[in-house]
């Protein structure tokens, strides 16, 4: 049974949670702590899978509690309960909280979020890597895009379109925005996968606050890694996203494919932040042997960047449709059929192809031609290389 720790400084609230979740007693081992100090005492001597804490508590508040939980039990899933008026408090919690729930919290929403948190273990079996990912507060962004975002936020005349245009270029920024917007703090009726719409929900002032005052887009420190360039990784993600959206006719699917493609290699950022030396060895072996990243990662790490990225996205509460595409973009045949997955798989392969010239239909072995041909998008495959070349030329300023 998964162990869940619920924390609040109001006895009536804890009693309400206990009554609300009584049907879960057969599935969860639930512990209810009255106040932050009581929770800290429990975390010091007992292990938990998930902690759900109120934000505003006297003495030790939710942020302080979750920061301590992260230090003592890095693998624990950390969830904050917050009122809609506590925007500033939520910003402060962004680095240490994986997900956010609004108060009062609907029973089904709470049950779904906790169940999903408990199921994360199936995405990634390696305890050491799972624990390392649990410590991540933010991912690194390309330096120029960070500067662009800060400069835009400092201007009084900046609009949503400018914010969105910057966020839509960077995997790390995109992941953080989607983490916040898809939390129940915003109370959206459906999970948000479109980055433009996500920034729109934030609004101009909230976007400014995120960029200027919240510790969300600060650069995490990580050692230089031979063979890895943050800027090159960002450019590849952006090219893949632009190709992916070109491969689909449906407008809604275009935006979802763009987002999934932008995030498809976010696991490499995870490796760069959490295990730079081991990641450097992966890159060295890949360069010496010519084998694909995910093949070498499996051999040396026991997990691929696709799985690591998907785990982080699920931990942060991003939509499962995006998580599944990222997890399977190298092996689409292992997942349920999906036009978005087909597009991202193909776009990733096409983005690796050199300038117009190769006749290899498998894109150097990266493209599962049979899988794509059997999909509903199969008839369009012969035209995709030309579309990818157009986007590649745009990316290099040739058109």
Write up what this structure looks like:
With 399 residues, the chain is an alpha/beta fold. The protein has 20 helices and five strands. Helix 2 (36-45) packs parallel to helix 3, helix 6 packs across helix 16 and helix 7 (143-153) runs antiparallel to helix 8 (160-167). The longest helix is centred in the middle third of the chain and has 18 residues, at 195-212. The model has no long low-confidence stretch (mean pLDDT 89).
| Structural shape | globular
CATH architecture term of the largest domain: Orthogonal Bundle
Radius of gyration: 21 Å
Structural class: alpha/beta
Beta-strand content = 5-15%
User: By CATH's scheme, which homologous superfamily of the largest domain applies?
Assistant: Hypothetical protein af1432
For this structure, what is the CATH class of the largest domain? Mainly Alpha
Output the number of helix runs: 20
- Total number of distinct structural domains: 3
What is the number of beta strands? 5
- N to C succession of SSEs: EHEHEHEHEHHHHHHHHHHHHHHHH
Question: Main beta sheet, described?
Answer: 5 strands, parallel
Low-pLDDT ranges: none
Distance between the termini: 58 Å
Average pLDDT, rounded to a whole number, is 89
Provide the CATH topology of the largest domain.
Hypothetical protein af1432
Helix content: 55-70%
Q: How are the strands ordered across the major sheet?
A: 2-1-3-4-5
């Amino acid at each position: 049974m998964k162990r869940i720790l619920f924390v609040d400084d109001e006895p009536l609230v804890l009693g309400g949670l206990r009554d609300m979740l009584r049907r879960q007693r057969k599935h969860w081992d639930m512990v209810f702590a009255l106040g932050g100090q009581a929770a800290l005492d429990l975390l010091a001597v007992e292990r938990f899978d998930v902690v759900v804490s109120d934000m505003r508590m006297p003495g030790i508040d939710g942020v302080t509690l979750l920061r301590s939980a992260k230090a003592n039990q890095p693998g624990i899933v950390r969830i904050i309960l917050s009122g809609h008026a506590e925007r500033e408090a939520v910003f402060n919690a962004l680095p240490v909280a994986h997900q956010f729930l609004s108060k009062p919290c609907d029973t089904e929403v709470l049950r779904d979020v906790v169940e999903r948190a408990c199921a994360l273990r199936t995405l990634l079996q390696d305890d050491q890597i799972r624990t390392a990912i649990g410590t991540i507060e933010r991912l690194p962004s390309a330096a120029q895009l960070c500067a662009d975002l800060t400069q835009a936020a400092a201007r009084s005349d900046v609009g949503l379109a400018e914010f969105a245009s910057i966020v839509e270029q960077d995997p790390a920024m995109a992941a953080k925005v989607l983490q916040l917007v898809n939390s129940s703090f915003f109370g959206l009726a459906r999970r948000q996968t479109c980055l433009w719409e996500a920034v729109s929900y934030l609004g101009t002032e909230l976007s400014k606050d995120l960029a200027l005052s919240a510790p969300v887009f600060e650069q995490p420190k990580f050692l230089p890694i031979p063979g890895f360039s943050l800027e090159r990784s960002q450019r590849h993600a952006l090219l893949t996203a632009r190709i992916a959206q070109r491969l689909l006719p449906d407008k809604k699917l275009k935006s979802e494919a763009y987002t999934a493609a932008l995030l498809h290699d976010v696991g490499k950022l995870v490796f760069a932040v959490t295990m730079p030396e081991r990641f450097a060895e992966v890159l060295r072996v890949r360069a010496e042997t010519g084998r694909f990243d995910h093949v070498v990662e499996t051999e040396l790490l026991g997990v691929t960047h696709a799985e690591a990225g998907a785990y982080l996205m699920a931990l942060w509460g991003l939509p499962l449709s995006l998580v599944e595409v990222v997890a399977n973009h190298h092996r689409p045949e292992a997942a349920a059929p999906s036009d978005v997955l087909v597009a991202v798989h193909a776009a990733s392969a096409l983005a690796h192809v050199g300038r117009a010239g190769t006749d290899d239909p498998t894109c150097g072995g990266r493209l599962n031609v049979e899988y794509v041909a059997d999909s509903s998008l199969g008839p369009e495959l012969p035209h995709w290389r030309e579309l990818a070349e157009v986007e590649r030329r745009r990316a290099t300023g040739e058109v």
